[in-house]
Design a protein that fits this description.
There is one protein chain. Helices cover 29% and strands 27% of the residues. It has 182 residues and is of the alpha+beta class. The protein folds into two domains: 145 residues, Gcn5-related N-acetyltransferase (GNAT) (Aminopeptidase), CATH 3.40.630.30; 35 residues, no CATH class. Strands 1, 2, 3, 4, 5, 6, 7 and 8 form an eight-stranded mixed β-sheet that branches. Strand 3 and strand 4 form a beta hairpin. The longest helix has 18 residues. The termini are far apart. The site of coenzyme A (COA) has 17 residues, from strand 4, helix 3, strand 5 and helix 4. This is GNAT family N-acetyltransferase. Keywords: Acyltransferase, Transferase.
């Protein structure tokens, strides 16, 4: 499965398609509760297999923690480790962004899955959209390669999640005969 941060309207449609199948289709979540007003405040993740959208999740960012939401794998692609891959990818993005605390709402049957990644129950069980949930949180070790101002403007300009590749704005420097700063 290839995982990436959504960077186009088509990819967003694909991510939403997975959520419609999984939450609205399988789990009978009403539309307005699934698309709860937070989708344009979130970093959206898409997983594909041979170009077919099969997985998604989103991350919302708070000052003291990142919140992992809407993890979903289409049923035909479950049970082979894609859930592990998706969660590891989300945690890696958070680590790279320098976050040290992660938080999520776990459907109860999945508590041991999240526990395996260091999440612990915080607060009391609660419910919404016809499911019982546990608040879970985990601490991340400080990441040596988290993004900082030391990376400089061009690395920080790169598309989210593609911080290791030369970005389109770096290529734009080729057009300058005289550097703007000169
Ligand atoms: C949760 C989900 C993303 C996991 O995807 P997956 O491809 O099945 O996951 P994996 O094959 O990588 O397995 C990951 C772990 O999930 C757990 N798991 C998956 N389905 C489970 C189920 N129905 N009940 C209990 N545990 C389950 C297992 O602990 C497994 O760990 P193991 O490898 O040690 O056995 C997927 O089942 C899904 O999309 N479910 C519907 C949406 C949902 O409920 N999302 C979670 C909201 S908190």
């Amino acid at each position: 499965m290839d995982l990436k941060i959504v960077s186009s309207a088509e990819e967003l449609q694909q991510a939403f398609g997975v959520r419609i199948l999984v939450y609205i289709g399988e789990q009978a979540c009403p539309w307005a509760e699934e698309f709860d007003g937070n989708d344009f405040a979130a970093t959206q993740i898409l997983g594909t297999v041979d170009g077919e959208p099969v997985a998604t999740a989103r991350i919302r960012w708070f000052q003291d923690f990142a919140k992992l939401e809407r993890l979903s794998i289409r049923p035909e692609w479950r049970g082979g480790g894609n859930g592990h891959r998706l969660l590891q990818y989300l945690m890696e993005i958070c680590r790279k962004k320098g976050f040290r605390r992660l938080y999520l709402h776990a459907q109860m049957r999945l508590a041991s899955f999240y526990r395996g990644y260091g999440f612990e129950i915080v607060g009391q069980p609660f419910g919404f959209s016809d499911h019982d949930y546990l608040e879970m949180a985990c601490n991340l070790a400080e990441s040596e390669d988290r993004l900082t101002l030391e990376h400089g403007p061009m690395v920080l300009n790169r598309p989210e999640g593609a911080w290791e590749s030369v970005g389109v704005l770096e290529a734009s420097l080729d057009r300058m005969e005289v550097p703007l700063s000169a």
